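hey so u asked for the seq, here:
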Amino acid sequence: MKALFLKDLYALKESRMLLVLTVFLALVMGCMGNIAFVQSYVAAISAVLVLNVINYDELDNGYSFLFTLPISRRQYVMEKYGFGLTTAFAGWCAILILSKLASLFSTESLGMAGWMVSVCVLFAMLLMQALLIPVQFKFGGQKGKIAILLVFAASFGCAMFVVKVIGGSLDEGFLMLWEFFSECSLLQILGTGIVAIAIAGAVSFFCSLRIMDHKAF
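ran it, structure tokens below
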């Protein structure tokens, strides 16, 4: 698994320009005082890096070569989730650093609310990975990109529907959700998020494992 992890790190070299542009754009937008953009943009890029390395493995019948090596499909799936966790936490650390730098150039500051938002961003990244990794394993390549877009659209539509149901309108729904989370302590958000991530991650892992077990190369 260590060799697979190192292979994925080397594969990220193919995305180095994307990473450089991400940091540069985040710094520019942060200096303009747009901390929310910094958090959401860096989070989205960090969450999908693991999908890029899975896509690289699929190119040119890569799976056929990989599984001639002494690794099992279970180990392969485990490594991808471990790599996803690594990129998510690395992205989260980058978000905290960039947000802190951005606060030096604006009137905004992280504060307790900012820390709570940053924790929610981390949970959102992990949930996004739990949702998208099985989709990438199932469809792969071009079909996977279309499937991921459909998943994003469906998730966004469901979220908007739930928010509207909660408040009667989108504005009222978002306001009620913000008030609800503002009243929660950081410990409550952490506890709820960890439980949700653990359940989603376990379901996602076993779905991915089942998909890979039934794939023919």
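The chain has a mean pLDDT of 77. Residues 2-139+184-213 form one domain.
lmk if thats what u needed
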